[in-house]
Amino acid sequence: MVSDATSLPATRSASRRRMRLPGTAVIGLGIVGAYVTCALFAPWIAPYGEYQIVSDVPFGPWSEQHLLGTDQLGRDFLSRLIYGARNSMGIAFVTTMIAFLLGGFAGIMAATLRGWFDQVICRLVDSVMSIPDLVFTLMLLAIFGASVWNLVLIIAVLDSNRVFRISRAAALNVSTLEYVEAAAVRGEGVVWKVRHEILPNILPILISEFGMRFCFVFLTIAALSFLGVGLQPPTAEWGSMVRDNAPLINAGDVTPLIPAAAIALLTIGVNFVADWLLSRSNGGAANV
């Protein structure tokens, strides 16, 4: 009884330490929360419309009416920056979701079924990954056109190859455990094993990896927009805003660097949250 009584406070203190957020996680959650707020409430936060021309002076200076000045067409730069959060993050999130649905499903099924199905999918993924993603993306966009849905589907399919590798490796580790093999002996089907045994155990890894892949997709879309083959005008997107307002840098104006800083800050915040989720999942697995 004494040992049980003394171990109870230690268990509670250990659980409190696990629930306490580290400083980087707090910073990351704050950054991501601010960006999500701007993306969701952009029409109410932005002082002007996304496409509204508010000045006859292109590249207007910072003022009380236009806190960050105007762009090359006389549109309010701050408003475009806020709407850029909605467009950039929204498209990157949808793209990452599609990539995880495709790659995650294929990876889990390959690890569960194995045999010829696993070999065919792995060889197909290897052949696609042998081509650099940026080169492959530019080639496909040149063939099919640089529309929003073409951009989303092309990046999602290419990024699903990485998701396939991660989900397959994690599912293989779980599918060889005794309780999964016991379920197969009981006569449970593939769907039951995936739903009740494999997916719940690899879900924390997939959630933490989602943040990493989101950053990669987000940066890819920004890079393609900077090159002129991503989101097309007049849609506000941070990569294209850097490109369109680059002449201001020669005049000593730092305004074009603000969208670049917004890209970097969001990447840092998402990585902080993803690292915390990954360490938490690893700690939970170790404690079990």
Could you walk me through the main structural features you see in this protein, from its secondary elements to its overall organization?
With 288 residues, this protein is an all-alpha fold. The chain has one domain: Orthogonal Bundle (MetI-like fold), CATH 1.10.3720. Helices cover 76% and strands 0% of the residues. The protein contains twelve helices and no strands. The chain starts with a helix and ends with a helix. The mean pLDDT is 84.
What topology emerges from the helices and strands here?
Blueprint: H1 2-19, H2 23-40, H3 42-45, H4 77-113, H5 115-129, H6 133-144, H7 148-175, H8 178-185, H9 190-227, H10 238-244, H11 247-250, H12 257-287
Descriptors for this entry?
288 residues, mainly alpha, MetI-like fold
Q: At CATH's second level, what is the architecture?
A: Orthogonal Bundle
> What is the CATH homology-level superfamily?
MetI-like
From the 3D structure, determine the CATH topology: MetI-like fold
Rg (CA only): 23 Å
- DSSP strand tally: 0
Element order: H for helix, E for strand: HHHHHHHHHHHH
Gap from first CA to last CA: 24 Å
Class by alpha and beta content: mainly alpha
Helical content class: over 70%
CATH class: Mainly Alpha
The largest pleated sheet is described as:
none
Task: Report low-confidence residues grouped into runs of 5 or more.
Answer: none
Instruction: Work out the helix count.
Output: 12
Overall spatial form: elongated
